């Protein structure tokens, strides 16, 4: 029921900051929990961060904790991923995801809607 579109990915240097944006449209989109996942070439998709609409809480993967932050702006129908202190290991295609679970875990199957992805490349 919800459509997602990510943007903002680009080539950056180590230590740079970058903000990704996810536009969410659809019925009752404000009642979806949302998350960011990423996938590097040849690797499996991995969890990055999530926002639970019910508890208003955020969850972060250990690999990015302290460097990344998610922000939900329902008025703008957008979900942001603010990335700081970027490292080469952060390189990959970043996907926005949405699901109806109140408290989703760091698993792809907990989310039913996905964007097409936006590529982030951190030069080394």
Straight-line distance between termini: 40 Å
Q: Total strand count, please?
A: 11
Rg over C-alpha atoms, rounded to the nearest angstrom: 13 Å
State the order of secondary-structure elements, H for helix, E for strand: EEEEEEEEEEE
- Beta content comes to over 45%
Which of globular, elongated, flat, extended, rod-shaped describes the shape? globular
Helix fraction, binned, reads: under 10%
How many DSSP helices? 0
- Which residue ranges are poorly predicted, with pLDDT under 50 across at least 5 consecutive positions? none
Determine the structural class based on helices, strands and strand pairing. mainly beta
Major sheet size, sense and barrel closure: 7 strands, mixed
Query: Overall pLDDT, averaged?
Result: 95
Description:
The chain is 0% helix and 50% strand. The chain has no helices and 11 strands. Strand 5 and strand 6 (58-60) form a beta hairpin. The radius of gyration is 13 Å and the shape is globular.
What are the defining features of this structure?
124 residues, mainly beta, 7-stranded mixed sheet, 4-stranded antiparallel sheet, 50% strand
Please specify the SSE layout and strand pairing.
Elements: E1 2-7, E2 11-13, E3 18-26, E4 33-39, E5 46-51, E6 58-60, E7 68-73, E8 78-83, E9 92-99, E10 113-114, E11 118-123
Parallel strand pairs: 2-11
Antiparallel strand pairs: 1-3, 3-8, 4-5, 4-9, 5-6, 7-8, 9-10, 9-11
């Amino acid at each position: 029921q919800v459509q997602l579109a990510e943007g903002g990915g680009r080539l950056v240097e180590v230590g740079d900051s970058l903000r990704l944006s996810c536009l969410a449209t659809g019925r009752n989109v404000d009642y979806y929990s949302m998350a960011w996942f990423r996938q590097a070439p040849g690797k499996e998709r991995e969890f990055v961060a999530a926002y639970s609409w019910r508890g208003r809480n955020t969850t972060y993967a250990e690999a990015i904790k302290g460097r990344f932050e998610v922000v939900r702006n329902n008025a703008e129908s957008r979900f942001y991923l603010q990335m700081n202190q970027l490292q080469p290991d952060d390189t990959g295609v970043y996907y926005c995801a949405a699901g109806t679970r109140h408290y989703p875990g760091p698993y792809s199957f907990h989310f039913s809607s996905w964007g097409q992805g936006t590529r982030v490349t951190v030069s080394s």
